[in-house]
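Thread: "does anyone have the structure for this chain?"

Original post by V.I.:
We have the sequence but no experimental structure in hand. Need at least a predicted one for the grant figures.
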Amino acid sequence: MPLPLTVVTKLENRAGEEIVICECRSTAPEGQYGDTITLALNQHREISATKINRRCVESLRSSVLKIFVGGVDTGRILKPCDLVDYSRIVFKHENGNLLIIGHRDTSPCPMHRVNGLRFLMGRNNYQDMAEEEIA
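Reply from O.Q.:
Generated one for you, tokens below.
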């Protein structure tokens, strides 16, 4: 659970299998991951949008987020800045391919992304957000 007054991103698994998102830091040995986020079938989870990105900047080491579906590496990656750019990221299968769809906030006041202030704007108000495929 993110701390109060933290910008959050909602991750949703609609892929039909468990999804694991692993942080791969540069210069780390293969298979050694930083943070790992697990999303069970049809689970959604709110994570700190800036945590991984901030850690990359502070340590001067880049990282990517590898996506595993059902324990298999999909070859798809997210950048830490994707968590900051999108309010909601949805993983789903379509025609046998994994789609990663991001909902970008276009409102001038993105207070619904701040944990602890979302009651002001509505917690799950994604209707007016631009939707686009990521990765």
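V.I.: this helps a lot. Residues 8-133 form one domain.
O.Q.: and Helices lie at 51-59, 80-85.
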